[in-house]
Design a protein that fits this description.
The chain is mainly α. It has helices at 18-47, 55-72. Belongs to the pufQ family.
């Protein structure tokens, strides 16, 4: 005999509204930008190489990492 009570369908995760996500992304991006400029400057001074990731790319990637963490919590 099979147990029908254990076949519970789990609802998919709620997708955040795009406008709210964009607002949080923008705030985090702007907060990460000054630190990204410092990190890029230190990287260029340490390595003497301009082929490092730029400050906008660094801040963008940090915002792409952090913002979904806020919505998944």
């Amino acid at each position: 005999m099979t147990d029908q009570t254990s076949d519970v369908h789990v609802a998919r995760a709620h997708r955040p509204p795009k406008a709210e996500f964009a607002v949080y992304f923008t705030i985090i991006f702007l907060a990460a930008l000054p630190l990204a400029f410092i990190a890029t400057l230190l990287s260029v001074l340490r390595n003497g190489d301009l082929n490092t990731k730029g400050p906008i790319a660094r801040a963008w990637s940090q915002a792409r990492i952090i913002t979904p963490m806020i919505f998944s919590a």
